[in-house]
Write a structure and sequence with these properties.
The structure is a single chain. The chain is an alpha/beta fold. About 55% of the residues lie in helices and about 10% in strands. Strands 4-3-5-6-7 form a 5-stranded mixed sheet. The protein has a two-stranded antiparallel sheet with strand order 1-2. Helix 3 links the parallel strand 3 and strand 4. The longest helix is centred in the first third of the chain and has 29 residues. About 10% of the residues have low confidence.
Length: about 270
């Protein structure tokens, strides 16, 4: 049996080792955000490694989005945030994703009625700075600031809808049968009048296969880095709110369960 003194020594050793590991992890994390990029904190404690060159652009976009949200609030509307993947990561197409995001907004507003307004983030694209395009980190600083608000409680929003496979299939006009065939037919028809899509996707076998695979199997916010951060933002917001006053969370048209609403998922662009 270990003596009390030995137990104390073991405890102190474990504490020192843990502290050393923690310092090592912190150092590694800090080293990953190398100059000229800097760590930018947010009201809910989610930091991002961003380029300071976009500070003014981000601030301007935040003001723009807040003004639009404020106008809808003053009109008595419920405000819904629609999280739809925009990046082509995984085989998607950015231009098509922007169209899908717009279609989700239209469909949700029709479903929920005139008292609801859906914020489509695809409408708020940021301009390049000195030839450099903004990255996911810069966008997430903007959206974290907008969604959480200055106090981290997300007071401007009533609901968040995360786009899923059903939402995307509705855009393509696909049902529950022959999804890949439906996507093939959509691509052929669309490419006949869309020179860019024909050149960049339809005429390139590998890219075409990736397009079909993505929209048949992975077309969902579940595969989006930005959407992962957005989910965690709303989880953190809801933890600050009283039970019954949380922001409603939906995925693919269905309300999330209580367990889903309170569980964070793997980060996307958040710096950890």
């Amino acid at each position: 049996m270990a003596t009390p003194t030995l137990n104390v020594r073991r405890g102190l050793l474990a504490l020192l080792l843990a502290s050393g590991v923690a310092r090592g992890v912190t150092s590694v994390a800090a080293a990953e955000c190398a100059a000229p990029r800097v760590l930018k904190s947010t009201a809910i404690g989610m930091p991002y490694c961003v380029s300071p060159a976009f500070d003014q652009v981000v601030a301007g976009q935040v003001q723009k989005v807040r003004a639009d949200v404020r106008a809808q609030r003053q009109a008595g509307k419920l405000v819904i945030y629609a999280s739809t993947p925009i990046s082509p990561r995984g085989g998607g197409d950015e231009a098509v994703n922007l169209e899908i995001a717009a279609s989700v907004k239209t469909r949700l507003e029709k479903e929920l009625g005139a008292a609801a307004w859906v914020l489509d983030p695809g409408r708020y694209q940021m301009a390049a700075v000195d030839g450099q395009s903004p990255g996911g980190e810069e966008y997430m600083v903007m959206w974290t600031t907008v969604l959480a608000g200055d106090d981290g409680r997300g007071g401007d929003f009533d609901m968040a809808h995360f786009t899923g496979p059903g939402d995307m299939r509705a855009f393509f006009g696909c049902g529950r049968e022959d999804v890949t065939g439906c996507l093939e037919r959509w691509l052929v028809t669309r490419a006949a009048t869309d020179a860019r899509l024909q050149r960049e996707v339809d005429a390139r076998p590998e890219r075409r296969a990736a397009f079909i695979r993505y929209y048949a199997l992975r077309a969902s916010s579940a595969y989006s880095k930005g959407a992962h951060d957005e989910w965690n933002i709303f989880v953190k917001i809801n933890r600050k709110r009283a039970l019954g006053e949380q922001i409603a969370l939906f995925f693919d048209g269905r309300p999330a369960s209580p367990a889903e609403m309170e569980v964070e998922i793997s980060p996307g662009y958040e710096h950890r």
